[in-house]
């Protein structure tokens, strides 16, 4: 029978990561004495020192470092076990909250969702459209179960399925600029013209300019479709997803000004969700369904 607990392992990991018993206690929201006792219990059970307490900061011994690596794996498995148990206990969801971001090719995404929810009639789809940093905010604030947008892939709270790469192209209507289009058009030249930008639907927008040219006059719209119409009418210029303007670029109704100073950009479109939260059976089936679609595309 094992005499140590997961709490004892948490104490070991926290002390090694934080470098002191007090910092570990703060991280774990436990008392200094409780953390000290947890380490003492491990050392007494295994009959060896796991920490070198001789310096200003406690350091792991060789044995302590070896157990630290294994403790991390055990704690990760324990969290996965707990998450799976919570999923099983949830039962079938009555609704799923899905956010479609501004970069999505909507017909394709809506077609996928329509087919899936047709086979899950007891779960209602709550669908929202958000722009710029709105989808990520909804996900991180737990206002959404799933988003179709780009995500911060360095965030350990998230997992994702790669769906597509979306190119955004800076475009104008013919005659809008009044001078020849070259690949050397500068920001100073474009400051004379109105730039059409999307309204960020986040309650607390992130500090990112998303192609906004500082110092230029701007008009703000709710979605790319309205943005496209304004640009087609020669009222402004701006970046649009290439899949939305392929025909207009081929026919000459819109012209690309991509070049040295306006290279455009490619964003990764993903299905994203929280990896640190439980997901019910329907949400899990939807994720597996999207996985299949991603493999087939």
Keywords:
LysR_HTH_N; DNA-binding; alpha/beta; 11 strands; Arc Repressor Mutant, subunit A; D-Maltodextrin-Binding Protein, domain 2; WH_DNA-bd_sf; two-stranded antiparallel ribbon; LysR family transcriptional regulator; 297 residues
Class based on secondary structure composition and strand pairing: alpha/beta
Report the portion of residues in β strands.
15-25%
Tally the helices: what do you get? 10
CATH-assigned fold name of the largest domain: D-Maltodextrin-Binding Protein, domain 2
The CATH class assignment of the largest domain is Alpha Beta
Mind summarizing the main beta sheet?
Answer: 7 strands, mixed
First and last CA, distance: 50 Å
Coarse morphology: elongated
SSE succession: HHHEEHEHEHEEHEEHEHEEH
- Mean pLDDT equals 90
- Under the CATH scheme, the architecture of the largest domain is 3-Layer(aba) Sandwich
Taking pLDDT < 50 over at least 5 consecutive residues as the criterion, the unreliable ranges are none
**Count of extended strands:** 11
Give the assembly state of these chains.
single chain
- Summed up, the domain count is 3
Residues in helices, as a percent range: 40-55%
Domain HTH lysR-type: 4-61
InterPro entries: LysR_HTH_N, LysR_subst-bd, WH-like_DNA-bd_sf, WH_DNA-bd_sf
Protein name: LysR family transcriptional regulator
Keywords: DNA-binding, Transcription, Transcription regulation
Please tell me about this protein's structure:
With about 300 residues, the protein is of the alpha/beta class. The chain folds into three domains: about 5-90, Arc Repressor Mutant, subunit A (Orthogonal Bundle); about 95-165 and about 270-295, 3-Layer(aba) Sandwich (D-Maltodextrin-Binding Protein, domain 2); about 165-265, 3-Layer(aba) Sandwich (D-Maltodextrin-Binding Protein, domain 2). About 40% of the residues lie in helices and about 20% in strands. The protein has helices at about 5-20, 20-30, 30-45, 60-90, 105-120, 135-140, 185-190, 225-230, 240-250, 280-295; strands at about 50, 60, 95-100, 125-130, 145-150, 160-170, 195-200, 220, 240, 255, 265-275. The strands form three sheets. Strands 3, 4, 5, 6, 9, 10 and 11 form a seven-stranded mixed sheet that branches. Helix 2 (about 20-30) packs across helix 3 (about 30-45). The radius of gyration is 26 Å and the shape is elongated. The model has no long low-confidence stretch (mean pLDDT about 90).
